[in-house]
Design goal:
Jelly Rolls, 281 residues, AraC family transcriptional regulator, 3 domains, 6-stranded antiparallel beta sheet, 13 strands, transcription, HTH_AraC
Length: 281
């Protein structure tokens, strides 16, 4: 994980450098969350499409996507390198000058969001080290933030989204910030592109996904325990949500993302070895 510059902390949730070896060509599943995704591949362009749509792949040296309720299919060969950023909803305004709702459900390139950053992939490729690439990226992001003068959303909208992320019921959130549920629905949708209930579901799912990955790295996964810890009624509830957002069951997702799997059908516990990879964090 890369340390984010303080001036970018409100906009950039995380910056991850990835350098991954795969057994062969395949598809990585990009999971939905409450963050926006910004990817800058090296060596070969990124090929992305939406899971289950059968639609065309977006191919390019950059990928920007807003909130989405369908997983992304990231097509890869034997090796992938690049930089992936998770952006906050506020980061869309700060970096691109638009609310996150303008990017919701879309797969875009830098040309679509900021033509002044169109040459960033070439500048990253020209840098000889990861340290140099990260310095180029940080400078470009800081410059983009300084160029923007778009107003930020009202504080109560940000508070509402924070409460929704923590699992507070929508009606209680509306009362807390002093809006009717209808008004809250409009404001949240205008800001991020999904209604409050969907935003809340995305937040809960994102937490479950993070717990699933952490448990995987520990060597054993209890889907039932993750469901309980993430606020789902039971394992079946998590499985339905996982299928809705990821396009497959939790067990199938584990098999796809971790090819060396000692699977146990749909039982609660699945153990496996971590796939061979190289990664800089």
């Amino acid at each position: 994980m890369v340390v984010v510059h303080p001036a970018l902390a409100a906009s950039v949730r995380s910056i991850v450098v990835y350098d991954v070896d795969f057994a062969g060509p395949g598809v990585h599943i990009g999971m939905p969350s409450t963050d926006l995704t910004f990817v800058l591949p090296l060596d070969q362009p990124l090929e992305v499409s939406w899971v289950g749509t059968g639609g065309p792949r977006a191919v390019g040296w950059s990928s920007v996507s807003g909130l989405h309720t369908r997983a992304a299919a990231i097509h890869h060969g034997h090796h992938q390198r690049g930089i992936q950023l998770s952006l906050t909803a506020a980061g869309a305004r700060a970096l691109w000058g638009v609310p996150a709702s303008a990017l919701a459900g879309q797969l875009l390139g830098l040309d679509d969001v900021d033509v002044r950053l169109a040459e960033l992939p070439e500048r990253l490729a020209a840098a000889g080290t990861w340290e140099g690439r990260l310095a180029v990226l940080e400078h470009a992001l800081l410059d983009a933030v300084r160029r923007r003068t778009r107003p930020q959303p009202r504080p109560e909208v940000g508070r509402a989204m924070a409460l929704l992320t923590r699992g507070v019921p929508v009606a209680a959130v509306a009362d807390d910030v002093g809006y009717s549920r209808r008004r809250l629905n409009t404001l949240v949708h205008d800001e991020v592109g999904v209604p409050p209930k969907t935003y809340q579901r995305l937040a809960r799912f994102s937490g479950a996904h993070a717990r699933m990955r952490a448990a995987a790295l520990g060597g054993e996964v209890s889907v039932a325990r993750i469901a309980a810890d993430s606020g789902y009624a039971d394992q079946a509830h998590l499985a339905r949500e996982w299928s809705d957002f990821a396009g497959c069951s939790p067990t199938e997702w584990l098999r796809r993302e971790f090819p060396i799997v000692q699977a146990s059908g749909d039982r609660d516990t699945t153990g496996w070895d971590e796939r061979s990879h190289r990664a800089t964090r």
